[in-house]
Every structure is written in C-alpha cells, then in structure tokens.
Amino acid sequence: MMRTDPEKYFIEVHTDKDIGNFEFAGSLLNAWLHHHDAKLRPEYFGLGEPIRKSFKEHSVADAVTQWNEAQIPLMLRRGSAPAFTVNIKWRPNKGQDTRPYPWGSSIWLALKAGDDRASELFRFLIEWFDPAFGMLTTWSDLKNKHLTRQETRLGIEEKFVGLDVNRTVPGVYWQTYFGKELLRHFPRIGATKIDAAKAETYRDGLLLCLFQSSGAIGSESGREIERSVEAEIGSDIFFRKPT
Fold first, then answer.
1. Full-model pTM
2. How many CB atoms lie within 10 A of CB 198?
3. Which of 23, 106, 175, 240 is disulfide-compatible with 12, CB 3.0–4.6 A?
4. For the segment 155-190, what is each residue's pLDDT rounded down to a tens digit?
5. Cα–Cα dist 183/33, whole Å
C-alpha cells in the first residue's frame, strides 16, 4: 500500500476482467487522458515509483507498449491539483492465486478534489473495469477498518486484511459498488430494501451512497449508518477486522 501522508480519498475496484491486453490498456488511457474534466486527467506514467514519464513527451502508444512488454501494468500520477496516484493491479496469469477477482485499480486522490470529482473518478473506474466490487472512502477510514499491527521478532508488522472479495465482502463504505457478479453470488445484497435515496442501479450493479458528504466518513453517525446497512443485508457476509 501507499505511504501514510496527508488524508486522501481512497478509491478501489476489484475485477476479473482481462486488463492486461493492448486494446484495453490503450482504450483506458485514451479515455482517461481525454476525460471531460481536465482536472481528473493523469499527467505521468511509469512501471513503479517514482512515476516520471510525462504524457506531454510520450504517447499513449509508448505507455501501452511499456505496459505490454514489461508484463506489469503502469502506475499513473497527476502532479497538478488535485493530485492523485493510481496503482493498477494485474499479472499475466493468476498462477496459484485463488482469488476470484484479483485485478483492479486503487487511487489515492487529494481531498481538495472535492466529493463531486471523487465520485466522478469512482464511476469512471466502474465504467472501465466492470468490477465485482468497489469502494470510495478515505485513507484513514480504510486503515481503521483493514490495517492490522502484529508484533514479530523483527518488530511491528503492519498488514491490510479483508480487502479481497472471496468468502466475504470487504464492507460498506461512504460509497460502495456491488457488481452483477457479486449480486449473483450474494443475492441478499440486491434483495435488501435499502433506502432509495442511498441506492442506485448503475451499469448492471448496485451503487450505494450512504451519506451526502464525505465529511461523515468515520463519524459515529456515519459508522452507525454503515452498520445498519450491513445488518440489513446480513453482517455475516462482511469482513470484520480482528480485535
């Protein structure tokens, strides 16, 4: 995961879609670089940090060729405000990985982007990655719910747990997306009567927005709404961090 500097929005999607092919990568980058909101366009790419190659000096074809030849996906970055960093997760094959949705993308977006832009970027990822699951929250909320610390012989080991979609779902957040595959696997999600103001059918899935502003993330009232929705669906299908 990323370093823990100032608070950010955290956006993540999980998919089994083949995102390693040349056609997908080129189409994704072209769409992103021509996004209707110029302030959501990435400016740099690279195979890892530091992310320094500029799209002003290199073409999309250059970036996609590097992605394809290295057989690892690119990382993307926007340096201008609102800054963001993108990590796309993919390998040429699953190998012995048993996770049903091992690929996807994570974005760390500066809070100054505002809720509307964060929501727009979340929907952009849903549109392109066709995910089984997605979340939009804050970096601190993610750590509170999924970061564990364990003492070892070498010191304190920090590890994120419960973020994979498998026997359980990571959780419910400020905004949560359940794709069509997850709705089939956990039919209780789609069958639950959730307040219509909080639920929207989006691209064959269900998009929940539990409170109007990201300012409620991590608050007692926000946590209570999240717990209530999880209880309505069935708390047993959601991950709980060990205490």
1. 0.94
2. 16
3. 106
4. 788 899 999 998 899 999 999 999 999 999 999 898
5. 32
